């Protein structure tokens, strides 16, 4: 269960976006869709920052219905403050260009065993890019890089996965395989929140941000 | 790894240059100490009791070493034996011969000021005292020794400053270069503490050259026979300066995430 308090995204004293509290069940996939710039990316970043706080602090905001403010100027330390249970996949891939695909996937892991390596091979095969395992990341296309990032997320298995620009990151022909991987995560209880502009028929739970509220569409 | 290696080599090189220069200065200082200790100070007096009293006073003085007194009879005996002058015993009036007190200075602690103090102390002990010392030579040796001490201190402080600056610059450069890695690492979901990693890396880069320098000194002593040692305080200061650069570099560097 993911509970989100009232999130206010500010730039100094000016409030850019404010989202009322909402709750998502474990294993749910929420697709935030809007053609308009309603603050989807900022919302994901603010959520990422909020989930990086300690559980005690998060509960305090939820219980007392306090407004959790995230200033966009805090962006510099956004990734550092992230917690262990949340992962944000932005549109720009976070891969080391000179490291191989396998090394990039294993990078955030503390303990690597043979099972993990086998899993990587399985996922690469599932996405039809098994031949890229020992290729450096700079040789991959952007969509392939995004797939590698997704495999890394599946291996890490965070409680919450935030994917920005889902429709731009994963092209339509790739999406069935991507959903297969995401399904694996959902089965393990991962909450997935993705944002995008285009309508996606494969996703049933579609939301948008309207009048400072996440509403189902 | 690149910066650990670079810092190790650079600091080791600086410490080795310092070691060679300091060894030479210390040898010069040892030579001066030896020369000071080999210049005797002689005090003559007809009054034996006065000389004995002065001898007792001086024996507690840390500046004085190898103190000895000789009575006039002993001096005459030595003269007769050394120069084979048996007739002198009959010719020389023993009461006219003075008694003698002889000592040398503690070279390591002697300085122009405490030598002057000692001289004043001797001359104020009584009127019937005649002091013979090679003042000019002493002054020359004292000034040389002081200059030598100053150069050693200057060399040590200078080396510390250069070592500190080199370590600080290399730590900052290492932190800046690693910014890219850590940003991507955190974005990819990695949660290792950067400071602990930096601390471990920096301590290795700081302690490795000091251990290396100690090893170089040991090998030089074992194979070449040159003994050179730094006192424990100097080692601690060098390590302290290297370690000081670690938090300072962390504080002054902008870390991007």
Structural commentary:
The complex is a heterodimer of chains A (217) and B (257). The two termini of chain A are 21 Å apart. Chain A contains seven helices and eleven strands. Helix content of chain A is 33%, strand content 24%. A six-stranded mixed β-sheet of chain A has the order 7-8-9-5-10-11, sandwiched between helices. A three-stranded mixed β-sheet of chain A has the order 3-2-6, with helices on one face. Chain A has a two-stranded antiparallel sheet with strand order 1-4. The relative contact order of chain A is 0.20. Chain A has 217 residues and is of the alpha/beta class. By secondary structure, chain B is of the alpha+beta class. In chain B, 71% of the residues lie in helices and 9% in strands. Chain B is built from eight helices and four strands; from the N terminus they run H-E-H-E-H-H-E-H-E-H-H-H. Chain B has a four-stranded antiparallel β-sheet with strand order 2-3-1-4. In chain B, helix 1 packs across helix 7 (194-223) and helix 6 runs parallel beside helix 8 (232-252). Chain B is rod-shaped, with a radius of gyration of 30 Å. The mean pLDDT of chain B is 86.
How does the SSE layout of this entry go?
The complex is a heterodimer of chains A (217) and B (257).
Chain A: E1 2-4, E2 6-11, E3 14-19, E4 22-24, E5 29-33, H1 40-51, H2 55-63, E6 67-71, E7 86-89, H3 101-106, H4 114-126, H5 142-156, E8 160-163, H6 166-169, H7 175-187, E9 191-196, E10 206-210, E11 213-216
Parallel strand pairs in A: 2-6, 5-9, 5-10, 7-8, 8-9
Antiparallel strand pairs in A: 1-4, 2-3, 10-11
Chain B: H1 2-37, E1 40-45, H2 48-59, E2 64-70, H3 72-83, H4 88-91, E3 99-105, H5 112-125, E4 130-132, H6 135-187, H7 194-223, H8 232-252
Antiparallel strand pairs in B: 1-3, 1-4, 2-3
């Amino acid at each position: 269960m993911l509970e989100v308090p009232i999130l206010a995204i500010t730039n100094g004293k000016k409030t850019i976006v404010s989202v009322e509290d909402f709750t998502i069940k474990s294993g749910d996939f929420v697709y935030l869709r809007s053609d308009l710039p309603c603050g989807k990316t900022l919302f994901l970043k603010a959520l990422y920052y909020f989930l990086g706080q300690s559980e005690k602090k998060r509960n305090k905001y939820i219980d007392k219905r306090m407004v959790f403010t995230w200033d966009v100027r805090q962006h510099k330390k956004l990734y550092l403050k992230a917690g262990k249970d949340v992962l944000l996949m932005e549109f720009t891939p976070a891969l080391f260009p000179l490291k191989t695909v396998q090394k990039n996937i294993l990078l955030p892991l503390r303990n690597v065993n043979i099972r993990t390596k086998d899993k990587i091979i399985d996922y690469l095969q599932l996405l039809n890019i098994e031949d890229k395992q020992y290729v450096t990341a700079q040789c991959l296309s952007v969509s392939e890089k995004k797939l590698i990032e997704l495999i890394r997320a599946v291996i890490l298995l965070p409680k919450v996965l935030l994917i920005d620009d889902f429709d731009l990151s994963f092209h339509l022909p790739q999406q069935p395989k991507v959903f297969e991987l995401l399904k694996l995560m959902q089965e393990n209880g991962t909450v997935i929140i993705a944002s995008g502009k285009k309508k996606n028929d494969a996703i049933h739970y579609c939301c948008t941000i309207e009048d400072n509220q996440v509403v189902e569409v | 790894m690149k910066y650990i290696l670079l810092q190790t080599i650079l600091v080791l090189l600086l410490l080795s240059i310092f070691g060679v220069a300091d060894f030479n200065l210390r040898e010069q200082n040892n030579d001066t100490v030896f020369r000071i200790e080999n210049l005797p100070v002689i005090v003559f007096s007809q009054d034996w009791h006065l000389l004995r009293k002065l001898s007792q006073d001086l024996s507690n003085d840390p500046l004085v070493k190898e103190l000895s007194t000789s009575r006039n009879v002993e001096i005459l005996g030595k003269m007769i034996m050394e120069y084979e002058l048996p007739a002198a015993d009959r010719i020389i009036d023993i009461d006219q011969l003075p008694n003698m007190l002889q000592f040398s200075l503690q070279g390591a602690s002697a300085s122009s000021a405490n030598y002057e103090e000692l001289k004043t102390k001797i001359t104020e002990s009584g009127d019937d005292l005649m002091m013979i010392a090679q003042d000019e030579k002493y002054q020359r040796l004292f000034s040389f020794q002081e200059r030598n001490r100053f150069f050693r201190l200057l060399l040590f402080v200078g080396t510390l400053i250069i070592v500190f600056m080199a370590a600080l610059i290399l730590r900052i450069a290492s932190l800046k270069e690693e910014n890219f890695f850590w940003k991507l690492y955190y974005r990819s979901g990695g949660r290792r503490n950067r400071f602990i990693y930096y601390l471990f890396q920096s301590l290795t880069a700081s302690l490795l050259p000091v251990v290396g320098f100690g090893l170089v000194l040991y090998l030089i002593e074992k194979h070449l026979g040159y003994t050179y040692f730094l006192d424990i305080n100097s080692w601690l200061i060098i390590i302290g300066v290297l370690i000081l650069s670690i938090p300072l570099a962390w504080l002054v560097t902008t870390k991007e995430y």
